[in-house]
Amino acid sequence: MLLELVREAAGQTTAPPALISPAGALSYRECLLRGEAVAHGLARLGAARFGCALAAPADTLVALAGSAAAGCEACPYPPGLDEAGLAATAARLGHDRVLADQGRPLGGARGMTLGDLERDGSDRPLPRRDRAPVLILTTGTTGEQKGARHDWSRLVRAVRRPDERPGTRWLLAYNLNQFAGVQMLVHALAGRATLVVPASRRADDVIEAIRAHAVTHVSATPTFWRLLIGRLDSRGAAELGLAQITLGGEATPQGLLDRLRDLFPHARVSHVYAGTEFGSVVAVHDGRSGLPLSVLDRDASADVRLRVRGGELQVRSDAGMLGYHAHEDDAGGWRATGDLVEQGADRLHFVGRTSEIINVGGAKVHALPLEELVCSVEGVELAAVYGRPNPITGQIVAVDVVAAPGTDADELPGRIHEACRRLPAAGRPRRIRVVPALETRGGKLLRHEAPASG
């Protein structure tokens, strides 16, 4: 269980901090004591499940550790929800209790605080539970946000005990309401490492946190990495001293892998394929985009298997979620991932999502290959490709781009048109806009038409 990992680390004489943030450090010992108190507080209340809307990652860590020990299902909410958003989320997920910083009532839900739980706890033995569930929300970047019910014992069992050197420090580049953030949390606790929380996800704040706290490992989305390296040159990258770079949450393009290898020649660069529903599938370390074709050869004894049907990747997992919220009978069997792939001689290459196909006069255009091409154009920091309605062809291909610092934005459309001129006519962008920023959610790029800027 989660609290047992904390207890093991707290028992070491030289345990590092569990988490460092701008608000200060949380030791493994403090995390253990507070987590135990929260567990007893939840047991006294008889709480079976609750929403968690705490602003500080350190407090969320304590709440998750305590809820896991109590066998009480916690559901971390997305950060930044206003009171109406919190009330709506609680109502949709059926939470009659919400753990919040102010403990205020939220619609029909009762508010409670960590202080209340820690004060109201007792030393009575905790009841034994068959399960220690946690509800993890999907990011909802390509559809309705869903709640996937996991079990902490499965999540902990799926993480191999790391052989990383003492002093490993992971940047917390995901929120703890995301599956990737929970995975990173379990991995760090299992390895007795330290999570470092930057002041914000802005590239400058991230770089400052890496430098100030000697971060060694960073796991983040490709979109996050593009924005980060847009602020670095070779000298600045070398000063960071990263040992491990991991990409996940989105398809990882070859050009980005090559750029990271050039900037961080001494770091191990990996990309992972995982999902909130089916868990971690495979980690790739060979410097090539896509997945090795051998992942399709796993036999029936494997915890996670893959196959391709109609160009879409499907997964069958015995190590993933128990089921969606309120439905525990939908976790088994083959599950469509929504990821479209093309099969090469020894590789599965991601080309897009089923929800993001652009239909131009009957011709199907995929966003990912075109985005990779556009991002290879000098002066482009980030790009989003999407379909724009058209009365003649149904849709046309549109591209929004963010210019790299110091780039003349007026020159970018011409460069992009030139780079795309050899593409089939249907796949060429018909509208190119330079925008100040692109919308992301959970570090992932949202591919839709951005509001017109003034």
Relevant terms:
454 residues; single chain; 29% strand; five-stranded antiparallel beta sheet; eight-stranded mixed beta sheet; alpha/beta; 27 strands; 28% helix
Write a compact overview of the structure shown.
This protein is α/β, with parallel strands linked by helices and 454 residues long. It has helices at 2-10, 28-45, 57-70, 83-93, 114-120, 152-157, 179-190, 203-212, 222-229, 234-240, 254-263, 367-375, 412-419, and strands spanning 17-21, 24-27, 49-53, 73-76, 97-100, 110-112, 133-137, 147-151, 169-171, 194-196, 217-220, 244-247, 268-275, 279-284, 291-292, 304-309, 312-317, 323-324, 335-343, 347-353, 358-360, 363-365, 380-390, 394-403, 431-434, 440-441, 444-445.
Write the layout of secondary structure elements.
Layout lengths: L1 H9 L6 E5 L2 E4 H18 L3 E5 L3 H14 L2 E4 L6 H11 L3 E4 L9 E3 L1 H7 L12 E5 L9 E5 H6 L11 E3 L7 H12 L3 E3 L6 H10 L4 E4 L1 H8 L4 H7 L3 E4 L6 H10 L4 E8 L3 E6 L6 E2 L11 E6 L2 E6 L5 E2 L10 E9 L3 E7 L4 E3 L2 E3 L1 H9 L4 E11 L3 E10 L8 H8 L11 E4 L5 E2 L2 E2 L9
Parallel strand pairs: 1-10, 3-4, 3-5, 5-6, 9-10, 9-11, 11-12, 12-13, 24-25
Antiparallel strand pairs: 1-2, 7-8, 8-18, 13-14, 15-20, 16-17, 17-19, 19-20, 21-22, 23-24, 26-27
Helix pairs in contact: 1-2, 1-3, 2-3, 2-5, 8-9
Explain how this protein is built.
There is one protein chain. The chain is α/β, with parallel strands linked by helices and 454 residues long. It has 13 helices and 27 strands. Helix 1 (2-10) packs antiparallel against helix 2, helix 2 (28-45) packs across helix 5 (114-120) and helix 8 (203-212) packs across helix 9 (222-229). The longest helix is centred in the first third of the chain and has 18 residues, at 28-45. It is globular and about 70 Å long. The model has no long low-confidence stretch (mean pLDDT 90).
